[in-house]
Each structure stands twice: as C-alpha cells, then as structure tokens.
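Troubleshooting: if your tokenizer reports a length mismatch, compare your output against this known-good record of 87 residues.
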Amino acid sequence: MIVSMRELKSHLALYIKQARAGQPVEVTSHRKVVARLSGVPAADDSAVSRLLASGAAAWQGGKPAGAALKLSAKGTLVSQIALDDRG
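Known-good structure output:
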C-alpha cells in the first residue's frame, strides 16, 4: 500500500494497524517512496519460545540455577588488573 506523508499523519493509527497485520505501507513525499512501515513479530517468536514449544527445553518458572551465586569482595579488582596489564 502506498500512502502520502499527509495521509499517513492524518490516519496514523489505521496505517500502523495495517502494518501490524502484515501489510507493508510505503510512505511517499513528492511522489517518491521515502519510508516503509512493516509489522514487528510478536515477542513470543524468540528462540527460547521455540525451544520450549518443541519440548527441547523445559522451564518451571523459577530463577536460573546460577541466580543464587554470590561474588566475594576478596582479591584484586578487575579494573586494577586491567590498569596493571596496560603498564
């Protein structure tokens, strides 16, 4: 679908809805296409969602196993190691 800039501004919600539905909207200025609106896939279309849906991975809703890991304040700071390494 091709629409002028003026028409897009007047009916923005309509054209956003059409782009979200999968119909690309090309925007023109002085009869030349200057932009293209297209929908963004749903957030659930991630690799993790596909793994969960296929059964290759499972999640019981808890935090990851390493989430309880606590770092100690002992030893040399990484920033100091980097400074020493630079010379």
